[in-house]
Amino acid sequence: MSREPGCSRWLLFAACAHLVFLLPPLRARAFAVSVVSEGAEDETELPVLQNSEKSRTISKIGRELKGIVFVIQSQSNSFHSKRAEDLKRDILKQAVDLGKELPTVLLIHQIDRHEGAWTILPLMRDFSVTYGRNSSWIFFCEEDTRIQVVKLVETLRRFDKSKEWFLGKALYDEESTIIHHYAFAENPTVFKFPDFAAGWALSIPLVNKLAKKLKSEPLKSDFTIDLKHEIALYIWQKGEGPHLTPVPEFCTDDVNSYMVDHCATTFSNFLPLCGEPVNKEDVFVAVKTCRKFHGDRIPVVKQTWEREAALIEYYSDYADISIPTIDLGIPNTDRGHCGKTFAILERFLNHTSPRTPWLVVVDDDTLISIFRLRKLLSCYDPNEPIFLGERYGYGLGTGGYSYITGGGGMVFSRTAVQKLLASKCRCYSMDAPDDMVLGMCFSGLGIPITHSPLFHQARPMDYPKDYLSHQIPVSFHKHWNIDPVKVYFTWLAPNTEESSNGKKVGYNREDL
After folding, report:
1. Helix/strand/coil for 341
2. How far apart are CA 338 and CA 52, in angstroms?
3. Exposure pattern of 441-460 as b/e (b: 16+ CB <10 Å)?
4. What whole-number distance in Å separates Cα of residue 425 and Cα of residue 422?
C-alpha cells in the first residue's frame, strides 16, 4: 500500500512528459519565446536600476560636496594667483559633473580684510559666521595640491561631521628643533601637525569652537614661523580641541605616481619651471659677512655654491683682497644688519648693470642652489615688485606684517628695490633686524611678500623628512653641528653626485 502513491506520481510525471514531447512545434517555440522574453525584461530592468542607483549616488555626493568650503592658500603674485585660479576651476569643473550645486572655493589672497589672512586663525570668526550653519567642512589646500573631489567626499564621509575633527597628513619632528621652539623636547614625535601640501580639514563644529575661543581671547602679537605646527598647537592647546587625525587618503605623492590610487589628494609640482632658467648674468648675489667669519664660513661658500654664481660680491666690515670682500663702511653689529643690507641695496641699484633684474642677499652661512633658483625665477616677472623667500610673520593676529626671513636668502626684483629706496622707509637703527624692517617697509608700500617653501631658515635636520621628500629645496641655513659641504652636495648641488678633486662624492640624506 505504501508504494501506490509513489507509483501514481511517477505515472503522472511520465504522462505529462509524454504530452510535452507531443506538443506541436509552434507551441514549443512559444514556450521557449516566453522564457527568453522574461529574461530579457530582467536584463533591461537591470541597467535602469543601475543608472538610477548611480544617479542617486552622484546626487548624494553633489549634496555632500556642497557642504565643503575649499580654501586655497593662495598668493597675490601673478604667477601664484594664476595657479590658484587654475585649481579653483578644476575643483568647480569636477563639481559640475556631479550636479547643479557648486561648492564654495575661496582664495586666501582675495580675503584682504586681514593682513595675516595666510595665517588662517584670524579668519576663523568669519568662517564661523558665514559657513557655520550650512556647511560641514572647511578644506584647506595649497595651489599645487590636486584634488579628486569624489574621493575627498568619500573620505570625509567616514568622519562624523557633527563632531570636532582636525584631519590631515601627519608630520612630526624626529628631534626637537629651533623652528618649533624645541617643543616636546622629551619626545617630539608625539605631536603631529599637517602637511599643507596634502590638504587638511576642519569640521564646522571645530571651526565654531575656535571662533568662539578667538572672540573671548584674541590672538596675541607674536611670531609666525612654521604655520602648520603653530596651527596644530593652537587647536590642541589654546582651542582645547583635538589632536590631528592622520588621513591616509591625504597624500603628497606626485599625481602621476603609481602609489596614488587610494588618494583623495596629490601634489603636482616640486620645483616650478616656466620655460628656460634665467641667465646666470641676470642674478646678482650679495653675501653678508664680517671679518671674524672670513676664515671658516667663506671657504665653505667657495667650496660649494659660489661656482654657480656669475655675479657675486662679499660685503664685510673689512676689505680682504684674498676673498675679496668689500667694506661698505658699515660697522659689524651683533644683533641685526639693517644698515649693511640697505647699503647693499643702494649699491645694487647704483653700481650694477641696470640690465641685471634680480638681487639675492644671503648670509655667509646660507647654503643655496643658484642653479635651482634660476629655474624658480623663470616663473616670476622682474618688472613686478617681487620680494621672495621663506615667509615669516610678526603680530599678524593683531595687524602686524609679513617678512622674508634672511637666513634662507632674500630675493628682490630690481623693481622692488627701486620702489623701496624711492620711499622714505629706512632702518630705525643700524643694528635693527634687516629682514623685519624690510617686511615693514614693503607692507607699508603695499607690496606683498611672496612665499616659497623651497627656501629654509634652518638645517635639513630641523624639518620632518616626509616634508622635505616632496621638495627640491633651494636653500638651507646654519652650520651648527653639521658638515655644511656634505649638506650642500646632498641636498642642493645640481647633481647629488658631485665631482670633487676628480673623485665622486655622494651622501645619503638619511644621514643628515
Report:
1. helix
2. 69
3. bbbebebbbbbbbbbbbbbb
4. 9
Is pLDDT above 60 for 2? no
Q: Specify whether the CB–CB gap between 216 and 395 falls below 8 A.
A: no
Over residues 143-154, mean pLDDT: 96
Contact 324, 380 (CB under 8 A): no
What pLDDT score was predicted for residue 500? 36
Do residues 477 and 408 make contact, with C-beta atoms less than 8 angstroms apart?
yes
State residue 105 phi and psi, 5-degree precision.
Answer: -125, 120
Q: Are strands 166-168 and 200-203 parallel, antiparallel or unpaired?
A: antiparallel
The Cα–Cα gap between 192 and 464 comes to 11
How many of the other CB atoms lie within 10 Å of CB of 15? 10
Cell of 322: 684674498
Q: Tens digit of pLDDT for each residue in 37-75?
A: 444 445 555 555 566 676 777 778 888 999 999 999 999
Q: Are strands 137-142 and 68-73 parallel, antiparallel or unpaired?
A: parallel
Taking residue 78's Cβ as centre, other Cβ atoms within 10 Å add up to 13
d(CA 431, CA 426): 12
pLDDT per residue as tens digits for the range 386-424? 999 999 999 998 889 999 999 999 999 999 999 999 999
